[in-house]
Amino acid sequence: MKLNKRLTSVEALGLAINREREASLLYKHMSGKIKNPLVKRKIIELAREESHHAKLLTDIYSRETGENPQRMKTAFYSGKIAELNKLGIEKLIRFAISKEKEAAKFYRENAKLFKDQSGRFMFEYLSGFEKGHQISLEEELKAIKRFPEWMDKEDILRATHIGP
Predict the structure, then answer these.
(1) CA–CA separation, 129 vs 86, rounded Å?
(2) Cα(107)–Cα(86) distance, rounded to whole angstroms?
(3) Strand, coil or helix: 137
(4) Which residue blocks in 33-112 are alpha helix, DSSP H?
(5) Are 148 and 88 in contact (CB under 8 A)?
(6) What is the CA radius of gyration of the chain?
(7) Could you tell me what percent of the chain has a pLDDT over 70?
(8) What whole-number distance in Å separates Cα of residue 55 and Cα of residue 59?
(9) Which residue from 17, 14, 16, 46 is spatially nearest to 29, judged by alpha carbons?
(10) Please, which of 75, 129, 135, 160 could form a disulfide with 80 given CB 3.0 to 4.6 Å?
(11) How confident is the model over 121-157, as pLDDT tens digits?
């Protein structure tokens, strides 16, 4: 998403809320395609974190404006989910990585819109969180490269050989 240099802090909050909601939905969708219980839990946790971020931002938005933020149409609400359904898990992870990079940049660049220290800090903090999500997903890509069946193993202990 291109950044509009004329965003207000309230507009940035609204966009951030919708980004977080969409990220949560993406991870919930992804978790349904993963059989490996370790990775599935990790992706479900990412969905939970993104949902928590949306709640934090919604609370700030409501406190600042006295209103609830409106939902913007997102890929999940505008019918683009069918396109994502066609992607294999590796491509979905790559897509999610690109979205996490965008989110980290969005938060970092828009933190300066806030006149108050707490708003700036929250966006800077979330930028770091999104960077962490990106790194976590990059590790899953590495695992797929080394062990292509990584996402499809329901019983990971049987898939792992320990010993001579």
Answers:
(1) 28
(2) 30
(3) helix
(4) 37-65, 81-85, 89-110
(5) no
(6) 18
(7) 84
(8) 6
(9) 46
(10) 75
(11) 999 999 999 999 999 999 999 999 999 888 888 876 5
